[in-house]
Amino acid sequence: MSIAAGSYTLGPESGRLLVHTTRTGIGAKAGHDLTIEVTRWRGEATVAPSRSSVTVEIDAESLEVRKGTGGVKPLTGSDRQEIEKIVREKILHTARHPTITFRSTRVDGTAESFRVEGELSIVGVTRPVAVRGSVAEGRAHGSAVIAQSRWGIRPYSALFGTLKLSDEVEVRFDVSLGTNR
């Protein structure tokens, strides 16, 4: 399948942007692997024969816990609220860093298998990252693995360090390309 040349507007209206976390440490059984959705974001993908590009801007306060698996007990509504507060205040420091941005520097491949290299800015730190994906039936989907420590983020821990969030989190996207402009 090919993608028609043009610009495509991306955001919650066109698809989902999810963050998946896993737990580690000797207390891992007590915690949950999380699926967190970015609820406010916008982006643009430009497809051109010689110069394709992607930009995405995320409202860092818009991360909402959608699912928690594993753990000794099910994730409650108050657990979700507490996790979201920790993400905003202790991990992403959204009062000082309200946005997360990605700007591509290189796009290679085909619709069936593409790679986007770019600069990801989180908590005021910018580092390179690679995204892999594909397009099928008018939808682009793919993922990137982000090691939090590369951006100076110390993975969350609890229970005196026996329960820890893994350093690597996976960001997945699934968006409709709809009509281009």
Report on this structure.
The chain has 181 residues and is mainly β. The chain contains one helix and 14 strands; from the N terminus they run βββββββαβββββββ. An eleven-stranded antiparallel beta sheet has the order 1-5-6-8-9-10-11-14-2-4-7, covered by helices on one side. The mean pLDDT is 89.
Topology record:
Blueprint lengths: L5 E5 L4 E7 L1 E2 L8 E6 L2 E7 L5 E7 L3 E7 L7 H15 L7 E12 L2 E10 L2 E12 L2 E9 L9 E2 L4 E3 L2 E9 L5
Antiparallel strand pairs: 1-5, 2-4, 2-14, 3-13, 4-7, 5-6, 6-8, 8-9, 9-10, 10-11, 11-14, 12-13
Largest sheet: number of strands, sense, barrel closure: 11 strands, antiparallel
Low-confidence stretches: none
Strand order of the largest sheet: 1-5-6-8-9-10-11-14-2-4-7
Provide a count of the helices. 1
Distance between the termini: 19 Å
Overall 3D shape: globular
Tell me what portion of residues adopts beta-strand conformation.
over 45%
Helix fraction bin: under 10%
**SSE string, helix = H, strand = E?**
EEEEEEEHEEEEEEE
Radius of gyration (Å): 17 Å
Per DSSP E runs of 2 or more residues, the count of β-strands stands at: 14
Going by helix content, strand content and strand pairing, the class is mainly beta
Average pLDDT level: 89
